[in-house]
Design a protein that fits this description.
mainly beta, 4-stranded antiparallel sheet, globular
């Protein structure tokens, strides 16, 4: 299965979730790649920074019920402070439907589950440029936030 992640930068400073998502490439928006590290299973955690926030982005396989690989978990750990409201664009798709609290169906096929450690505002599902987008506000109160995103097929 091929999961296409949202194009452009994954994070943006927006005054409101109704503002358009920036179209500039990540590097042009101020993102800086800080390298990666490998865990004991040789799985990478990618590190980058954006506007005073350091991000660790760790993709790991999802296993369930004896099945070796039923999906992908993406854990983003953000540390720092943001001077303006910060949003994570969790998905861009032809069709996104909310099926339960924190659970969405993408293109009628993929199930995506989202959770955050700091609560805060709910995710915003919106249409832009002929596509659906799912924006998650990042609550950095206390200097840290963790977003977990599961893609299940």
């Amino acid at each position: 299965h091929l999961i296409e992640l949202a194009p452009n930068a994954p994070l943006a400073k927006l005054a409101s979730p109704n503002d358009p998502w920036p179209t500039a490439l990540a590097r042009e928006s101020g993102f800086r790649f800080l390298g990666y590290k490998l865990d004991a299973q040789q799985q990478p955690t990618f590190r980058y920074s954006f506007s005073g926030v350091t991000v660790e982005d760790q993709p790991t396989p999802l296993k369930a019920g004896g099945q070796p690989f039923v999906g992908l978990r993406r854990t983003l750990t953000l540390a720092g402070s943001a001077s303006e409201p910060l949003y994570y664009r969790a998905a861009v798709s032809s069709k996104i439907e909310k099926t339960a609290e924190g659970e969405y169906k993408l293109d009628g096929f993929w199930t995506m589950k989202l959770s955050t450690t700091n609560g805060g505002e709910a995710a915003t599902l919106r249409q832009a440029g002929g596509k659906w987008e799912l924006l998650v506000p990042v609550n950095l109160s206390g200097g840290k936030a963790v977003l977990t995103q599961d893609y299940v097929w």
